[in-house]
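Handout, section B. The chain below has 197 residues.
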Amino acid sequence: MSQLTGTVLVVVLIVVIIGLAASPGTSHPAEDKKSVLEYTLPLSDGTQQPLESYRGKVLLLVNVASKCGFTGQYEGLQKLHTKYESEGFSVLAFPANDFLGQEPGTNEEIVTFCRMSYGVTFPVFAKISVIGKDQHPLYRFLTNEATNPGFSGNISWNFNKFLINRQGKVIGKYGSRTVPEDAELVAQLEKALQEKP
């Protein structure tokens, strides 16, 4: 092998290694954030919404989809939001088309569906990706053990839920099969609401 060929191979190998190390994934957070409140995302109408504006509130972050077997959970999410909103609670919905194309609509179609079908009054954000190479940095933060110890791990399907305390710290993670009215989820929510902002 010539010296030129060997040098080219070394350069290619270095580029590949750097590319793998820099690629987003659950083991390498893209940003050095300490809280979900440090992120800003667009609402369904395109308005940039800093999550910092929710500081002092208890939040339930949910990746949602309109054509999923769990879509009926919108009803329970709205009931939770209505019941506890005056105490400083909000559901935040993040539509994602990651699982079998179950959220194919535009942002406008999604929010119209939520409002018309379930009377949703909580914030519905613009569609994002919660898994894979296009995973939004917020969900990269939520699924990474280094940034979210104890509550990390892949998003398994639509309607995974993260409970956030008034300081922006994740205090619970629930799978798709955990309904919003689940006794454990509600108990943890009520406990978080008792904490002072």
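Note. Strands lie at 40-42, 48-50, 58-64, 89-95, 161-164, 170-174. Compare this with the example in section A.
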